Amino acid sequence: MANDAVREIMADVEGLWAGLDEIFGSFSASDWDRPHGADWTMATVPFHLSYFDRDIVANGIEKGPDMHVEDIAARIDQLLPEIGHAPPTLIDNHPEPDYWYPVPGEAPG
To answer: d(Cα 80, Cα 64) in Å, to the nearest integer?
Structure first.
């Protein structure tokens, strides 16, 4: 199961980079200077993508199929400040409701 998940992630990353190679290969010299967001240019995009692929994906695969999501999340939290971004603030978009829906055969909690 875990090896299948790793293979799926690797295939996804390879597919992403193949698509990006095609896009980036079509750029003229002036295209690389175009803005991308508030702080980046198109020239910085491959760097940032490869940085995360190496530190998140490749290092995770290197750890083996038993890598933990918590390790990946901790590494992302560590990397974001290194590239000038604050770690995300987690928001619970699905809080527990303060009401109870009865389930057949289940007593109220």
So the answer is: 24
Tell me the C-alpha distance between 35 and 43, whole Å. 9
- How far is residue 108's CA from residue 41's CA, in Å, rounded to a whole number? 56
Instruction: Quote the distance between the C-alpha of residue 69 and its chain's center.
Output: 11
**For residue 79, pLDDT beyond 90:** no
- Could you give the C-alpha distances from 105 to 82, 94, 98, 101, 108, in angstroms and in order? 53, 25, 21, 12, 10
pLDDT in tens, 16-32: 889 989 998 999 999 99
pLDDT at position 98, please? Answer: 56
The Cα 49–Cα 91 span in angstroms is 25
Whether the per-residue pLDDT at 84 is higher than 60: the answer is yes
Beta bridge partners of residue 40, listed in sequence order? 36
